[in-house]
Amino acid sequence: MGCGASVMNRDGGDGNASAPKPKKDAAEGESFSKDLKSFLIKIVKDPEYAKSLPETLAATDDPTNQVEKMLKMMMSIIDMVKDTTTPKHDIPEFLVGCLVAFLYHLTMKPAAPEKSVELTALHETGYHVDAKWADAVYDKEEVEDAKAALVASMAADPMPKTMKVEDVAYFRAASKLGQPAVAVVADRERELILVIVRGTANMKDVLTDLAGASREWEGGYAHESVSMGAKKVYEEIKEYVLNLKAQNPSYGVRCVGHSLGGGTAGCLSILMHHDAEFAARIYGGVPLPGKKSKGSYMITAVGFGSAACINKELVEEAHPYCTTIVHDADLVPRLCTDNISDFIVLADNLVDTFKAVADDMRMLLKGTKPEGYDFKKVMGMLRKVGSDPGGLLKDLLDEKMDKAQDAVEEAAAANEKRLYAPGRLMFLAKPEKGDGPYTISKGPMASEASKMLLKGSMFKDHSCGGYVKVCCLGHLPPPPAS
Predict the structure, then answer these.
(1) 370 and 311, same structural domain?
(2) What region holds the Fungal lipase-type domain (predicted)?
(3) In the beta sheet, which residues pair with residue 215?
């Protein structure tokens, strides 16, 4: 199934709490907004254009047009969830609803937790080092000496880290069916045994994998393929971890990964805690932290853009020892079949909203007064329709779109099988303007922050290289001048 999404560039190129509040997102890029409004104005002026939209998308391939890519992605996603949710409108009309939903999401910032975190505090957790490990395991399948290549990647900027090849206890660099690539490493400086799970570098594969079903798992619900992959990886690396622990009794275990690898890492940490014999050997007979025992968790996990793969009950269980770091509008931690279904319902609701507004816009474009507006407002609309028709269209839609979103949220409440990224949330929010420092905050994962917003940067924000730079430097450096 094609989604129209390109292969991600892990160096940050295209690949891609309080309730969300409408805010101008300067980082969104004017080109996305311009392309989006252009699509909608074409449909206002020529309703027949919408009927040919699927064929038009199939016949064109403009890699610079984010709107085109997002519509192609939605067509693939509809096919992925057709057994559970299908649009009530035909595909051309539904795609118009998608365009309106994109417009609705355009000026909304992803919800961020309220508790702020300084970059120095993030560095104290070592998560910036873990981000480098999550990135380092990519692209080693065809290297002659994969362990040496892994160590060499850690020595690269930013914030290079010197490792020894002999500290890489195990590295299967190539993924197998249902079993991601994985490494086991002794981090001597931090006294950690790292289990690093590689993610999926192709956004098409990520979208396909995450459209799968959930199943009962470890006392809750989990994404079927991610949880099964975690079980296979656990059986594969268990003895390597225990051997390193026997040699280094003071070491803890940390599971690390990006994207699907981050979701797998979170599931691994749950499996390790649920395996009483394994946990006893890692904790050395010390009671696990909890209501009756204060202490440090010896088994932890951190994921970067982790896949939504466990339900709220398991998310809350893993909250004390598992963290998912989310880069602004990154789609993957928010992508699950329930969120996709919510979006389909929203887009369906917005089809009729657009039809009503489009009728008013056509009258204004002809210089006539639509019904239901006072004279002063009509005069303002007539002035704007000549200078900024796309902006006027958005203004008229904004007045009606909140009601459609509210209806979706009411229908989505109290779903015990809804999936989230594992553990607690650490959120990396882009600066309002320019290339300044990010704002970092933390809070619960099963919150407004997990709502899916489809934005122009949602693929780019998923790049592992972007996570490395923000976690190490606190900002994304501007691209080098060409």
Answers:
(1) no
(2) 195-337
(3) 222
